[in-house]
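Tokens in:
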């Protein structure tokens, strides 16, 4: 048996999240269906670096699976893309050691969140960026981003529905936002993320940008470790799993 690692992207607009669910169209479901056909109706289980919610996209998701087939790597990529739907694409396929695990071996992830500030809604962006026409102070947001960097307990920034047990301490190596015209991208690079953590941070940063909160309120929210203080969770369509890092 051989283990294959694949880097994939997908448009999350047409999926009910990554994880397989009975009766629902999911990314994992489509991947496993394609592999089922390749393996002559023998089921193949796919593992990913992490799950994404309904409407969330991926630019550089990483998966792995075990297969008895021994095709060249380039043939794997070609065969999978032939069988997969148009909203999933395999960028790279490579053989890895039996010890590799796409989730447990990841040492960091980068997420990006996109929004645009046009005065009117762009119907062609509605699945891929958040329309946010309100005025924002980028200076205040950048200051708030600096307080999110470093190692903190992110309980306040974790969904109350999270099933993760144990420590909620994470290290954010880079948190920043960049603006180009009416478009803004938020970039988050850290060693790990809690459930809905990025979308909750976006909600807070937008509150800072509009003046509802001050940048220093970030420190108070981190200290109090109470999700009820963090306000709304930003919508999913602007969020992208951008890259997964391995040693």
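Residues out:
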């Amino acid at each position: 048996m051989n283990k294959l690692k694949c880097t994939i992207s997908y448009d999350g607009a047409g999926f009910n999240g990554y994880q397989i669910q009975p009766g629902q169209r999911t990314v994992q479901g489509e991947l496993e269906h394609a592999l089922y056909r390749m393996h002559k109706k023998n089921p193949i289980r796919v593992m990913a670096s992490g799950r994404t919610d309904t409407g969330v996209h991926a630019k550089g998701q990483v998966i792995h699976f075990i297969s008895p087939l021994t095709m060249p790597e380039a043939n794997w990529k070609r065969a999978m893309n032939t069988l997969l739907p148009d909203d999933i694409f395999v960028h790279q396929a490579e053989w890895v050691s039996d010890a590799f695990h796409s989730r447990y071996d990841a040492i960091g992830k980068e997420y990006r969140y996109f929004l645009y500030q046009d005065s009117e809604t762009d119907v062609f962006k509605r699945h891929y960026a958040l329309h946010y026409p309100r005025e924002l102070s980028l200076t205040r947001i950048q200051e708030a981003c600096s307080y999110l960097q470093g190692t903190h307990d992110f309980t306040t920034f974790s969904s109350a529905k999270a099933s993760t047990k144990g420590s909620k301490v994470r290290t954010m190596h880079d948190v920043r936002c960049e603006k180009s015209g009416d478009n803004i991208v938020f970039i988050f690079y850290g060693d790990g993320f809690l459930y809905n953590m990025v979308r909750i941070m976006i909600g807070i940063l937008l509150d800072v940008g509009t003046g509802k909160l001050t940048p220093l309120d970030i420190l108070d929210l981190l200290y109090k470790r109470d999700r009820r203080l963090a306000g709304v969770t930003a919508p999913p369509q602007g969020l992208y799993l951008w890259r997964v890092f391995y040693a």
